Amino acid sequence: MAFEGLADKLSEAFKRLRSKGKLTESDVKQAMREVRLALLEADVNYKVAKDFVAKVTERSVGSEVMESLTPAQQVVKIVDEELTALMGGENTRIDMASKPPTIIMMCGLQGSGKTTHAAKLASLFKRQGHRPMLVACDIYRPAAITQLQVMGEKAGVPVFEMGQIDPVKIIKGAMRFGKDHGNDILILDTAGRLHIDEELMNELKRIKADVEPNEILLVVDAMTGQDAVNVAKAFDDALGITGVILTKLDGDTRGGAALSVRAVTGKPIKFIGAGEKIGDLEPFHPARMSSRILG
Ligand code: GDP
């Protein structure tokens, strides 16, 4: 499971701190050096780790903590609060349109889990009583449409496709169809590429301008560590995303992406995916994730 290395290292550092009883400033600084190393080893962005440790140290070396009865426990509590804040504080919900349909544009690099997560999200909305529809907008790979249909079937959600024509025309067609059939949420599975390129971004920008989605969710693979964060930054700079879905957290990812995405892009992780099955999708709760990391 993700975060094991980080969780172990942090727990060791805090155990040493607890064994000391009364703390000195240098004890705290030593522990924070260990925390910083653990974060870097978990592939957390360098500046994010540095700023994080600086903030925790500043709050910890004050007299309130140092002179308390359980100083080590107070330090761990501060780490917990700052980890939660780093990941965005509160859970961030999907922004629903005041007048349906809500349009959710999924984007991401090929292989990130975009199609799988479009279907997982559709399934979640269906279970919540909505009537979502998946829209096949990847017009470059005929196999992409078939894959979406397979996933749509697993989710029990209809898939709208018009073959390989202009994606904006497909989406307009889906909006008309959805209106007639009572679909209140349209989830757009856009094309991905192996790398970020201008052509892909221009197409996504054009869809954004013509369709004005309520949400632009970027799907990133947590296994790619710092690259996931770089991809998120590039998509956000070019497109202005509204949130991130972090996938493949069931693998042995070191977790750095979960901790850095928000700080680097300013955009929240809204969902996490941990598995290939339709049900493997959870809203992202920073406080819960922090407790998981701190054990
Ligand atoms: P796309 O190219 O971005 O649309 O990516 P896909 O949805 O086709 O996913 C690529 C591969 O990753 C597929 O084999 C999926 O089954 C797998 N996958 C997607 N999400 C997850 C996840 O959360 N965990 C794991 N282990 N595999 C995933």
Automatic annotation (TrEMBL):
Cell compartment(s), UniProt: Cytoplasm
GO cellular component: signal recognition particle
Coiled-coil regions, chain positions: none
Keyword tags: Cytoplasm, GTP-binding, Hydrolase, Nucleotide-binding, Ribonucleoprotein, RNA-binding, Signal recognition particle
Residue intervals of the SRP54-type proteins GTP-binding domain: 268-281
GO function term, MF aspect, one: GTP binding
Residues reported to bind GTP: 108-115, 189-193, 247-250
Catalytic activity line of the entry: GTP + H2O = GDP + phosphate + H(+)
EC class of the enzyme, as a word: hydrolase
EC code: 3.6.5.4
Gene Ontology biological-process annotations: SRP-dependent cotranslational protein targeting to membrane
Role according to the record: Involved in targeting and insertion of nascent membrane proteins into the cytoplasmic membrane. Binds to the hydrophobic signal sequence of the ribosome-nascent chain (RNC) as it emerges from the ribosomes. The SRP-RNC complex is then targeted to the cytoplasmic membrane where it interacts with the SRP receptor FtsY.
Subunit structure as annotated in this protein's UniProt entry: Part of the signal recognition particle protein translocation system, which is composed of SRP and FtsY.
Domain notes: Composed of three domains: the N-terminal N domain, which is responsible for interactions with the ribosome, the central G domain, which binds GTP, and the C-terminal M domain, which binds the RNA and the signal sequence of the RNC.
UniProt similarity note: Belongs to the GTP-binding SRP family. SRP54 subfamily.
Protein name: Signal recognition particle protein
Species, as recorded: Solibaculum mannosilyticum
Lineage, highest ranks first: Bacteria, Bacillati, Bacillota, Clostridia, Eubacteriales
Residues of the full protein shown: 1 to 295 of 445
